[in-house]
Amino acid sequence: MKKYMKIVVASFVIAVLLGSIPFESACTQLENDVLRLHILANSDSESDQELKLKVRDRILCDISPLYNGVKSKKEALEITEDNLSLVESIAAKVIKSSGYNYDVSASIKNKYFNTRYYENFTMPAGMYDTLEITIGDAKGKNWWCVMYPTLCVGAACEKSMKDDLSDSEFEVITSNEIEFRFKIVEYFERISTLFN
Fold it and tell me: Which helix H or strand E contains 4, and what residues bound it?
């Protein structure tokens, strides 16, 4: 009986893993097609968190025109690289005008994110190219969004996200899949980062 149960459990695990392969493939493709924005606050104090949101608002407002008509992540990355000093300058002005003396830096990194849930969207775990903005000690709670294919993820962005992602990628971020499938992907992503 124990042997039979082991076979049933092993068969179930194999079936779940095989069923997750197309889903995991779409998640991996998202990593290649998405550019994220990640802002790290100086600390978790209320004032530092408010400052982070002020920096976010000003950056999103000032740089959004740069991305009008962008057709690929490669193009979005090039625009971002060409404007890192502009992003730093915008953030520095907000910080100074708010009465702070924090350093700020902007850089493009390829970094790991856990699965993130945002309104009607879910971004699966993985290694994503990211415009990272650090304020001061960068030890506070962070804020993130998707810069490409849209400037920020939200229900209003659904149409343009659908236009710029493949059907399977769009299905991954908008589906009501059981959280378990995302956990499987996250598990394999964590393992793969150990070998990078």
Answer: helix 2-33
In percent, how much of the chain has pLDDT > 90? 40
| Mean pLDDT of the region 142-157 | 67
Q: Which residue has the tokens 């009465």?
A: 99
- Phi/psi at 176 (nearest 5 deg)? -100, 40
**HSE of 103, CA atoms in CB hemisphere, 13 A:** 4
Largest CA distance in the chain: 72
Domain boundaries, the chain: 2-193
Residue 77 clears pLDDT 50, i.e. is over it: yes
Rounded CA Rg of the chain: 19
**Is the predicted pLDDT of residue 31 greater than 60, yes or no?**
yes
One-character DSSP codes across 44-97: SSHHHHHHHHHHHHHHHHHHGGGGTT--SHHHHHHHHHHTHHHHHHHHHHHHHH
- In 3D, which of 109, 112, 111, 110 has the Cα closest to residue 187? 112
* Residue 13: predicted pLDDT: 43
> Is the pLDDT at 28 greater than 60, yes or no?
no
**pLDDT, position 123:** 77
Dist CA 153 CA 88 (whole Å): 22
Give the CA angle between residues 123, 124, 128 to the nearest 5°.
80
